[in-house]
Design a protein that fits this description.
The chain is built from 18 helices and twelve strands. The protein is an alpha/beta fold.
């Protein structure tokens, strides 16, 4: 084989992520290179990452990754389907990956492949459209549609990592990719579970670790992180949405229904833009905005993403069918060897220096400029505000 691909947010990289990489290599071979596509400074749940993308790439490299590529913001802040399609398009374009490894609750790639095929069947898609037209929220409509076509096996979609794994497989199928999926059973704390013990310490969820770090409970967080990671995070600085809350609310209050309708996944034909206008006018905090806009049909995660898109100035037109370049955030010696191979195999331009941007085509330059704006606004989320223009002055991390 050539290399294994991994899609992650590493927000932050913890012992569970280290276990996933180690177990993947145990099954595939200790020398297999690992190419990770990682979200940049804004993440899928609709908030800022705990710390900046270069620091998170460094922690991933220290934890077993060999090459880290950035998932641009138009896909990193997206539904599971959009997130998966953007990330898998990058792994496919790299031309050096032949296996995709991901964690799941079920640990059964065949089961997830059958679920993906069921979701993509014409009957299931028609049922999904009918259920959504009746006002059912997308996650519930999706599982109900699959159950009507496939039966009790649809329960696999009720677990978040299974669900994301299904979307990875659907993305591979849509790309007609030769990359084959494998899944590693997820270890440790689930969203409502108890910590596991692997890799020399408790495997806590990333959300638990983020909460402890932002509360200043560093000793508790450090035990769930690889050695030295807590100090690296502390030195880099911790980002928090509360530091830009008024700026986000100011942006939301300046928007009208037409502005909201232009956002990705805005629900323009579902009455959501008008609901967002009302919520923005009444809310005195972001949490209140989310609560006022949320309904049975519009999930909390979707509303959070809409708020971030509004703040970053991202419209539906800013998310084309696929990313237009491969941006390297970090590498080690094995990653450098992969990059040399990618010069012969990559289907997209590979950016290893900010200066390479001027060699991109017009659409790719627009995409890069959007990521730069997202990075600049992310810098406001720190106690000590970061300067703008970092995307044009910061090269890949090398470990």
């Amino acid at each position: 084989m050539k290399a294994v691909g991994i899609v992650a947010e590493y927000n932050p990289f913890h012992l569970g992520h280290a276990w996933h990489i180690a177990e993947t290599r145990r099954q595939l071979g200790e020398d297999v290179p690992a190419v990770c596509v990682m979200s940049g400074d804004w993440v899928q749940r609709g908030e800022c990452a705990l710390t900046d993308k270069w620091t998170r790439a460094k922690l991933a490299l220290r934890g077993g990754a060999d090459l880290v590529l950035e998932l641009p913001v138009s896909w990193s802040v997206s539904s599971a389907e959009g997130f998966a399609r953007g990330a898998l398009a990058l792994l496919e374009a790299a031309g050096v990956v032949d296996i995709l490894s991901f964690g799941s609750e079920c640990g059964d790639a065949d089961l997830l492949e059958r679920a993906a095929a069921g979701l993509d069947s014409p009957g299931c898609q028609a049922k999904l459209r009918r259920l959504m037209g009746e006002g059912l929220p997308f996650p519930a409509a999706r599982q109900a549609a699959l159950q009507s076509c496939w039966g009790p096996g649809a329960e696999v979609l009720s677990s978040p990592n299974n669900n994301l794994g299904v979307e990875y497989i659907r993305a591979l199928n849509a790309l007609r990719s030769g990359i084959r999926p494998m899944t590693v059973p997820r270890k440790g704390e689930g969203h409502d579970g108890a910590p596991g013990e692997e890799m020399g310490g408790p495997i806590l969820s990333a959300s638990t670790i983020r909460s402890r770090v932002r509360q200043g409970r560093w000793e508790e967080a450090a035990g769930a992180l690889p050695a030295g990671a807590a100090e690296i995070l502390r030195r880099a600085g911790i980002a928090d949405m509360r530091r830009v809350e008024r700026a986000v609310l100011a942006r939301l209050r300046r928007m009208d229904a037409e502005d909201f309708a232009a956002l990705p996944d805005s629900g323009a034909g579902e009455g959501l833009p008008a609901r967002l206008v009302r919520a923005a006018g009444q809310a005195a905090s972001l949490e209140e905005f989310y609560s006022l806009a949320k309904s049975k049909r519009y999930t909390h995660a979707r509303i959070r993403r809409l708020a971030v898109w509004a703040f970053l100035g991202i419209s539906g037109a800013d998310r084309p069918d696929a990313p237009r370049y491969l941006r390297v955030l970090g590498m080690n010696s094995r990653g450098m060897a992969l990059l040399r191979e990618m010069k012969k195999t990559a289907a997209l331009p590979v950016l290893t220096k900010p200066a390479h941007v001027k060699e991109l085509g017009e659409e790719a330059r627009r995409q890069f400029a959007l990521s730069c704006r997202a990075t600049d606004l992310y810098g406001l989320c720190f106690d000590r505000i970061k300067p703008g223009g970092l995307d044009y002055t910061t090269g890949p991390v090398i470990v």
